[in-house]
From TrEMBL:
E.C. number(s) listed in UniProt: 1.1.5.4
Reaction(s) catalysed by this chain's protein: (S)-malate + a quinone = a quinol + oxaloacetate
GO molecular function, one term: (S)-2-hydroxyglutarate dehydrogenase activity
InterPro entries: FAD/NAD-bd_sf, MQO
The UniProt record lists the keyword Zinc-finger: no
Family annotation (NCBIfam families): mal_quin_oxido, PRK05257.2-1, PRK05257.3-2
Lineage: Bacteria, Bacillati, Actinomycetota, Actinomycetes, Mycobacteriales
Pathway: Carbohydrate metabolism; tricarboxylic acid cycle; oxaloacetate from (S)-malate (quinone route): step 1/1
HAMAP family in alphabetical order: MQO
Highest taxon listed in the record's lineage: Bacteria
The protein's name: Probable malate:quinone oxidoreductase
Single GO biological process annotation from the record: tricarboxylic acid cycle
Length: 481
């Protein structure tokens, strides 16, 4: 019997476990993970791009409206969410929940990059639209080719200086090893009494007559089965969350389907390139492509080594996890989501066409796409790595590229679907789970919560002084000065 069962040891469960440990120290917590270690799926550093998404550079968060103005709503929302995450990380370091910040976090400029007259004009208008918001202050808009070459020499080499280029340069971005962070947070939970069952897969979720959930587990090494009774269950199983919510039979998941999109990155560890390119540079998404596949060239730090990563290229597999089963997609289609899933398939013909075009890509054509960023890129210097699976939510016949929290009316079960903005917004997402599922207790947690996230409940865009305070405190704790 446990108070809280967390299914999956990815960044979401790890964050929720650590938050609960602080807010309700006497609650018993049990984590169940089918793999033999934490962060083996999307939260692994090579299964995602490691961008601390704050809306600084991602052009798909700032679409152009038909009248030519720029809609900054989403960029501001993502930045506000990232500020919540950043404060919790600062609190976690200050209070010894996790170790040295350089184990998982590195400062790196976040840069938007475009070329061509029209795109440079769009970027200028985007820069102006964001400039008044304190969360986006201090970015540099650059069109001078000499300055471009000084900041991004590898991207300037071999490029025609006659083609206009534009950069929006935010020097205060971050590269995050979400895998290392997940392991540290799980470690904190274990040091404070949480039980973790690695190599155990949750196969069933049934309701007892007293309202508790009975989890049926299988030890994947021995085949032995066991049961856990839990008062509250969080399904943080990444792509597998949908199937587990369906198995629990809760009405809130009816009508929801899932569509898996995989990814492939090009990776390079050559020192002459990693030392010449020290930024995360995001370009414009290809028309018809999902926003999550907008190309970017990222400087990464993983386990003490420097890398460059480019992509993601969309890939396809019916699996809902990288280590999943080919039956995942067919098994997720039920009577209640069939019409919606078929409707999305018909509506998203442009996306299907894009995915098919991506599947035809071979190494050479992927490097060709990279040359938009690095004109001198050589095939042999770059190797392909398979990224994690994202399962996009289908609802009402529409594909949703965001994140959805599904929870029962009585708050005894919640699950997180979707993977964008993803790990960067794990803290606000998990606080939302707590607010919805522990409505009766949430108010009593506020004093502790405001120690962890001092700006909780405040829109920092409207409070520049408070933003300055929490930013400086966070930068000091996270050693990002
Ligand atoms: C290509 C790509 C690029 C991305 N880039 C970024 C980025 O730059 N920045 C960012 O913030 N986010 C990014 N994301 C999103 C981010 O990686 C995810 O949102 C995040 O890692 C999801 O964490 P999670 O804990 O929900 O799931 P996961 O990390 O996938 O963890 C789920 C865990 O549940 C376990 N599990 C599944 N089923 C069961 C079961 N039945 N029983 C027990 N255990 C089970 C799995 O083994 C796994 O360990 C990216 C994702 C992808 C795919």
């Amino acid at each position: 019997m446990t108070d809280v069962a967390l299914i999956g040891a990815g960044i979401m469960s790890a964050t929720l476990g650590a938050l609960l440990r602080r807010l309700q120290p006497d609650a018993s917590i049990t984590v169940v993970e089918r793999l033999d270690a934490a962060a083996g799926e999307s939260s692994d550093p090579w299964n995602n791009a490691g961008t601390g998404h704050a809306g600084l550079c991602e052009l798909f968060y700032t679409p152009e409206r038909p009248d030519g103005s720029i809609d900054i709503t989403k960029a501001v929302r993502v930045n506000e969410q990232f500020q919540v995450t950043r404060q919790f990380w600062a609190h976690a370091l200050e209070n010894g929940l996790i170790g040295h910040p350089r184990n998982f976090l590195h400062p790196v400029p976040h840069v938007s990059f475009v070329h061509g007259v029209g795109a440079v004009d769009y970027l200028r208008r985007r820069h102006r639209a964001l400039a008044d918001n304190p969360l986006f202050a201090g970015t540099d808009f650059i069109t001078d080719f000499g300055e471009f070459a000084a900041r991004l020499p590898a991207m300037a080499a071999g490029r025609d200086p006659a083609v206009p280029v534009g950069l929006d340069w935010a020097s205060h971005g971050t590269d995050v090893d979400f895998g290392a962070l997940t392991q540290q947070l799980i470690g904190y939970c274990v040091r404070h009494g949480a039980a973790v069952h690695f190599g155990h897969e949750v196969r069933s979720l049934d309701r007892e007559s007293d309202g508790r959930w009975r989890l049926g587990l299988v030890d994947l090494r021995t085949g032995e089965t066991r049961r856990i009774l839990a008062k509250f269950v969080f399904i943080g199983a990444g792509g597998a969350t949908l199937g587990l919510l369906q198995r629990a039979g809760i009405p809130e998941v009816r009508g929801i389907g899932g569509f898996p999109i995989g990814g492939v990155f090009l990776r390079c560890g050559a020192a002459e390139l990693t030392s010449a390119h020290r930024a995360k540079v995001y370009g414009l998404p290809v028309p018809g492509a999902p926003s999550t596949t907008a190309p970017h060239l990222d400087a990464r730090r993983v386990k003490g080594a420097s890398w460059l990563l480019f992509g993601p290229f969309a890939a396809w597999s019916p699996k809902f996890l990288k280590h999943g089963r080919a039956t995942d997609l067919p098994r997720s289609i039920r009577f209640d989501n069939l019409a919606s899933t078929l409707g999305a398939g018909l509506r998203e013909r442009e996306l299907v066409g894009y995915l098919l075009s991506q599947l035809r890509r071979i190494h050479g054509t992927r490097v060709q796409a990279l040359r938009e960023f690095l004109p001198d890129a050589e095939d042999a210097a770059w190797h392909e790595v398979r990224a994690g699976q994202r399962v996009q939510v289908i609802r009402g016949g529409q594909l949703d590229f965001g994140t959805t929290i599904v929870h029962t009316a009585d708050g005894s079960m919640a699950g997180l679907l979707g993977a964008s903005p993803g790990a960067s917004t794990a803290v606000p997402a998990m606080l939302e789970v707590l607010e919805r599922c522990f409505a009766g207790r949430f108010g009593t947690w506020l004093p502790t919560l405001t120690q962890m996230v001092p700006s909780w409940g405040v829109r920092l865009s409207d409070e520049p002084e408070l933003f300055k305070q929490v930013w400086e405190w966070g930068s000091q704790q996270l050693q990002l000065d």
